[in-house]
Amino acid sequence: MQLKNDLLLRAARGEQVERTPVWLMRQAGRILPEYREVRNSVSGFIELAQTPELAAEVTIQPVDILGVDAAIIFSDILVIPEAMGLPYEMVEKKGPRFPETIRKVSDLNKIKVANVEEDLGYVLEAIKITKKELDGRVPLIGFAGAPWTIFAYMVEGAGSKTFSKARAMLYTEPEAAHQLLGMITQSTIKYLKAQIAAGADIVQVFDSWAGILPPDQYREFSLKYISQICDAINEVPVTVFAKGAFFARKDMGDLNCETIGLDWNMGIEESRRLVGPNKTLQGNLDPAVLYGSAKQIEAATKRMLDQFGSGRHIANLGHGVYPDTNAEKVKVFVETVKAYSAKLRTEKV
Ligand SMILES: Cc1c2[nH]c(c1CCC(=O)O)Cc1[nH]c(c(CCC(=O)O)c1C)Cc1[nH]c(c(CCC(=O)O)c1C)Cc1[nH]c(c(C)c1CCC(=O)O)C2
Predict the structure, then answer these.
(1) Where, by residue number, does substrate bind (predicted)?
(2) Chain centroid to CA 193
């Protein structure tokens, strides 16, 4: 099916665009009252994510309501550990929890490489329904967690400020760590390929906990596996977002992917120098700017667009939108990107 708005895909591939495409990480979710309504009609997040018709509905809400240039499939990065044999719970107001964890070599017997069609069929079905209902309005983004971030949850068993158990394992059980990272990587490649076969137009890898590793360990235990994923996925453009990995930007410039996500601590001009000219950059407005006035949001968004200039860029926040953000403020961000980038790009030509 021909897309009516393919700005995101063209920007990812480095082609000319009339204006900068814009979407928000975590756009499908609690910032929208319409989401909360659907969410309240079921037992919780997991049931919602596992009901393809409802997952498709909340995936499309931000396209209708916020006017973003892409939909991202409603799911979670933690479906991979579940498909590998470690189920998760979503504890209200606290986040994910794994009753079983991996800490040592023998624990690897509890898990397997995911059987994607069988165990994640509900995500693939949600993608198919979403594609049909979007009817080519905007591209659909598929996603997965980066192996290191998934490892961190599987070992730690929950979110954490330090992920000290996961970090300890890199020293105490490095071989088991590599085995687990390898299994996650294989599962993730199968999963992303299945999402693409089901209709995802582009995929993003989230390394949310990149920033807690020292640079040498980041290279050995994270980038190595992200690089395998990038090499395996050639069907659609790939985006890598590694939160806090400011020290790895130069290495990320060598990844076999189209787009690198920046968080809001990463300087834009410095990132362009480090990453080089051959990648699209995505980001990176501070999500807290959306707590400011409409005037402040407009000014900060314009400043960001000026800094990215006429180079390859997809506008986004520097991390997921905070759940208590007012949706009207998100619209100010989206509208400002659309209007101001169109003006910048016509002036520059
Ligand atoms: C680390 C991570 C997770 N999940 C995700 C990441 C990587 C991105 C990031 O760094 O933010 C990714 C994710 N999670 C969700 C999406 C859906 C699509 C989107 O709108 O971006 C995506 C892309 C839905 C979700 N995932 C979750 C919710 C909230 C559940 C609810 O409705 O109560 C949603 C909408 C739950 C979740 N899931 C996770 C946590 C820590 C939590 C609890 C805290 C929180 O709510 O943010 C793990």
Answers:
(1) 26-30, 76, 153, 208, 319
(2) 16
For Cα atoms 292, 296, 301, give the angle at the middle one, nearest 5 degrees: 110
Binding residues for substrate: 26-30, 76, 153, 208, 319
174-198 vs 224-232: helix axis angle to the nearest 10? Answer: 30
Residue whose Cα lies nearest atom 11 of ligand 1: it is: 320
Nearest CA to ligand 1 atom 34: 29
Residue of 41, 48, 76 with the most ligand 1 atoms within 8 Å of its CB, for mutation? 76
Per-residue pLDDT tens digits for 254-301: 999 999 999 999 999 999 999 999 999 999 999 999 999 999 999 999
Q: Give yes or no for a contact between 108 and 176, defined as CB atoms under 8 angstroms apart.
A: yes
Cα–ligand 1 centroid distance for 347 (angstroms): 38
Which residues fall in the annotated binding site? 26-30, 76, 153, 208, 319
Question: Residue whose CA is closest, atom 31 of ligand 1?
Answer: 45
Residue 64 annotated in active site: no
Give residue 283's region: left, alpha or beta (phi > 0; psi -120 to 50): left
Q: Give this complex's ipTM.
A: 0.93
Name residue 247's amino acid: F
Give the pLDDT confidence of 189-228 residue by residue, as tens digits. 999 999 999 999 999 999 999 999 999 999 999 999 999 9
